[in-house]
Structure formats: structure tokens, C-alpha cells
Amino acid sequence: MSGAVAMEASRRRTRHSANGKASERGQQPAQWGRAWEVDWFSLISVIGLLCFAPFIVFYFVMACDQYQCSVSQPLLDLFRGETTLLSIWAQAPSFTWSAAKIYAIWVSFQLFLYMCVPDVTHKFIPGYVGGVQDGARTPAGLINKYEINGLQCWLITHALWYANAQHFHWFSPTIIFDHWIPLMWCANILGYAVSSFAFIKAYLFPTNSEDCKFTGNVFYNYMMGIEFNPRVGKWFDFKLFFNGRPGIVGWTLINLSYMAKQQEMYGHVTNSMVLVNVLQAIYVLDFFWNEAWYLKTIDICHDHFGWYLGWGDCVWLPYLYTLQGLYLVYHPVQLSTLHALAVLLLGLVGYYIFRSTNHQKDLFRRTEGSCSIWGRKPAFIECSYRSADGGVHRSKLMTSGFWGVARHLNYTGDLMGSLAYCAACGFGHVLPYFYIVYMTILLVHRCMRDEHRCGSKYGKDWKRYTDAVPYRLVPGLF
Fold first, then answer.
1. Which terminus, N or C, of the chain has the lesser number of Cβ atoms within 10 Å?
2. Radius of gyration of the chain from Cα atoms?
3. Distance between CA atoms of 99 and 86, rounded to whole angstroms?
4. Residues 29-80: pLDDT tens digits?
5. Do residues 272 and 247 make contact, with C-beta atoms less than 8 angstroms apart?
6. Is the CB of residue 243 less than 8 Å from the CB of residue 309?
7. CB 91: neighbour CB atoms within 10 A?
């Protein structure tokens, strides 16, 4: 409990002066990350997610395996008494040691690439930022260093996958699909193991006790995390590894395995499967190309590491973000040329907005405003905030370019891309559209969380910013 004591001390280290204004040593530090205290609604939500999220993943995967991707049929069969929960469970493939071996090799290989192969791609790929990079300042005032080698890991992994498929034939390209449900049990084991380890570590040997948050509620602490940047040794960072690898590296391999299975089953690959693979590969490659920029995003800058990230990155991401490809294995939709072009256009326009918005922010931040946005010098609002160590820091909030159109237009572009993935599957079933529903909830909630944090962090300066840029996602509507 020494971490909790240290954090409580840091909370009380600062005070407001008598006139209500923050003094140089007395201003309350900005409340970053998750909450200090938990209301009943948050607690009920947390317990609900802990209980039901694993069943949601199982339900969707089971629906494809046993009911041809029908979301409603299992419920109707249960209601009519034509099946039981036990019979559904009995038909689901169970844990296998073959799957455990595959999963252990996969995670170990990604761990090896992450820890033991320093990035060299930044030395010969123009414009790519890799190698050792600084992260954002933590609430306690620390700046961690990271080894950025995600693009290199992705390239090595996919080069080996291609070499195996074309030349070595060590394993079938359909290996992931063929072991999909047994692999899910393995992913759950890792997700719960790493989340539990991070939870215990925060109490017994935190990496930095002043970047921990203890609410006093065990469920909230377990789910949302206590430590801000849990690490083992100098370089193994839990958040960066599990956010970026093995789930996101695996995303494109999972889609390739689905494509190979479609080829095996039907003798051809549909244009819808090609679209899903291409559009999602663009997103994944964008993530790794901009991994250094990712260090400044909400996942790394504000979220603590708990079950939400640990289990979510191991299970939720690879199993639910790839539902479109899984659906197309069971339903090989061949789109009309017009439909396919519309999906491609929606996906590319969404990506352009997503990437351009983030690029403007990154350019503005790197040059401290000494740049050109849409042909003009960018306008901004200057803010100040105080970290837990008592230091006063300044920041600038841009009100030009896409950031003058809406406060989170990058999320709008992300949602357009998400809708394109779903629309590539046609309109025969609801299941592929779970992703856009989930992403809308996730990004709107993240938008609200981000704005609540910024309001706490910047105070009246944030109010000035929201007055200058009144819309969040959709200009004129929201």
C-alpha cells in the first residue's frame, strides 16, 4: 500500500491560496487519467463490462461458428427451447494444446521483436520516425523513453508470413481461422494474467508510485488500472506492447488467414474480402508509421493500464475488430462495381480526414505553431497547467485547419472508415455492423472523457477553446 500513501501525499501537496487563485506552489494539479473517486453509475458499468464483455466476444464468434453469423438465431432457439446454453457451450471448440503452442510462439516472437531488435527502418525509410523517442509528460511530471520499432516488427512478421505461404509451407495460411476459438481461450488467459499482474504490481512494486491512482474500489482499480506506465526493466512498457503488439500486428494476419480460408472454401476471393483487407491494412500501417505520434494520444497519455487495456488488447481487439473478415468467410459477398467503389471512396475519404487532422496537430505541436495550416499561420489559444510535481507547463490548443472545424474531427474520419469496413459486407446480416456501433460508442465516450480531462487540466482556458470551436464531431450538429 506504499504506492497509495505516496499518491495521497501527492494529492495533498498543493493548495489554493485564500483569494481562490492558484499560487505558484498551491494550485491543485491537473486531474489527468481516470477518476480518483467512483460514482455508483461508473461502478455498475465497470462490473457489467467485467462480467459481460467476455461473453459478448464469445457470442459473436459462436454465432459465426454455429449459426452462420446470425445474431438473432441463437436467442430465438433459446427462447423456443430448441437449444440450451449448455448445448451451445458443448458445441464450441475447447482449449487445445495445439492452439496454446501457436499462441505462445506468436506472443514470444512479438516480444522478441519488441525487446531484442532495435529499430533500423528509420535509418533508410524517408519520413519515418523510429528508434528511441520521448513520450508525453506523465501526471507526475516524468517523460518516459520508448523504443519505437512497430513498423519493423510488422514488416518482419508479414515477410515471414509471405515466405511461409509461398515457399517454406511450415504451416497453412488458414492456421489462424482453423484454430480461431481455441486461440480465443488462450488470448483470454493472457489477457487476465497480464491484467492481474499489473494490478498486483501496482500495490507491491509500482514503477512510479506518483503516477498511480487508487480509488479504494477494487473492481474499478482492476478494470481501469492503477499504474500509469507499468514497466519491467528499462524498456518493456506494458501499454505500448499490448496496445501495439501482438493484437494490432496480428490484425492484418488474421484478415489474411480469412482471405486464405475463403480461397480454400470457394476457389476465389471476393472483392468485399479484398476491400476489408486493404482498408484495414491501411489503418494498421498508419498506426505503425505514426507510432511515435501515438505516444502523445489518449491511450498512452491518459489511460492507466488495467483490464480495460490488458484484456481488451489481447481479446476484444483481435476478435471483434476482425468480424468483417470472419463474416465474409461464411458469406462470400461479391459487391457490384458501384457498391465497391462507394465503399472504397468512403474508406479513403475517412482515412484522409483522420490522417490529415492528426498530421495538422502533430505538425503544430512539433513546430510550436511556427508552421502553415491550409496556407495560413495557425491560430491557437495558449493554456497553462500544473503537474503533480508542482511544475507549471504551457500548451497551445489549435483553432485552425480541421481543428477549427470540430474539436475531434479525427474521430469523425475514423468513424467513416469504420462504416466502410462494415458496408463492404453488404446488408444481409447485422453482425458486421457491430463494429461501427461499438466505435461510435467508444469514440463519443472517449470524446467526452477527453474533454472532461481537458476541462480539469486547463480550466478557464479550455472554456475559451470550446467557445472558439463549438462542435465536437459533426459541424453544425454535434
1. N
2. 23
3. 23
4. 444 445 556 677 777 888 888 889 999 999 999 999 999 999 999 999 999 9
5. no
6. yes
7. 11
Residue 89 Ramachandran class (φ > 0 left, ψ -120 to 50 alpha, else beta): alpha
Nearest to 379 by CA among 389, 364, 395: 364
pTM for this prediction: 0.85
Contact 124, 111 (CB under 8 A): no
Helices (H) and strands (E) in the chain, counts: 22, 6
In DSSP terms, which residues pair with 178 in a beta bridge?
A: none
**Helix 323-330 to helix 271-289 angle, to the nearest 10 degrees?**
160
Q: How far apart are CA 380 and CA 396, in angstroms?
A: 6
Query: Would you call the peptide bond into 246 cis, given omega within 30 degrees of 0 as the criterion?
Result: yes
Would you say the C-alpha torsion 311, 314, 315, 316 has a positive or negative sign?
Answer: positive
Contacts 24+ apart (CB under 8 A), 442-448: 443/408, 443/411, 443/414, 443/415, 443/473, 444/473, 446/298, 446/411, 447/407, 447/408, 447/411, 447/472, 447/473
Cell numbers standing for residue 221: 482499480
Going by the DSSP 8-state scheme, the letter that residue 137 receives in this structure is E
- pLDDT bracket for residue 477 (50, 70, 90): confident
